[in-house]
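protien #1 (seq + structre)
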Amino acid sequence: MFDSYYRFSKVGVDKALNKKYLKEIITYSFKSENNYYLVEVEVYVLDIYIVKFFLKRHKRNPLKYNLLTKENRCSKVVSTCIRIMLQIHFKNPLASFGFLGANIIERESGYEESKSATKRFMVYRRAMYALFGTETFTHYIDLEHSAYLMISNKNDSVEHIKDKAKKMFDDIFPELAD
């Protein structure tokens, strides 16, 4: 299901100035059959990489993560993001990854999916377990917020990274804190 992917390229690195935890944002791009996509990888302390993607034409749209493309290429797009993650992990074996499965918002129909256990989150979770398993990463999920964190088992203390990551993201995103 996640075998094929689009060719991608790194298009830039922006240093995060005056951010407490965020170090930089690495941007990649790829083209599907009909659209251009951007993948932003936020690099945080503790070697945590948060992967986000959206259509290039939605870059300035505040709902860019919530919109459907209507392209029906989900597995190939997700697989492309996974290839980027693999490239990062190859260069940095201590790299850990996280993401949120954004809820779907359809402006035309007025439909807004719950933020808990979103469809996107469920697809991403399935892909992470299928393609990464538990030998390389320890997986943590937060169904209520559709949040996912995979910590590299090469780290000395996976639990320590998890606890520090939770504190960091609670500080950055207080709306997600318990």
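ok now protien #2
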Amino acid sequence: MGQVIIVITESAYADLEDIENYISQDSPAIARKFISKIFNKIDQLYQFPESGKFVPEINDHSIRELLLNKYRMVYQLSDDSKISVLRIVHGSRLLDIEI
């Protein structure tokens, strides 16, 4: 696999905003730290693009997920070294993605 390109979709950005707003109700500093941890986790895909596990409720092996605490970072790995982060959701929520 060549150089990896990571794209954060609009849905994933909206998820990040929702997560930050929710955590900020208790502590804006902790919210910023947690969002930073999410980006650090996503950054590992530059070195290890296949490090995520397959998403059990989706029958598509190009869709994978990374876990951080109780959050799922769902991404799609394309053959051309492109990774699209599709959603970032709490594990207790239903996964709603369009492929």
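The chain has two helices and five strands.
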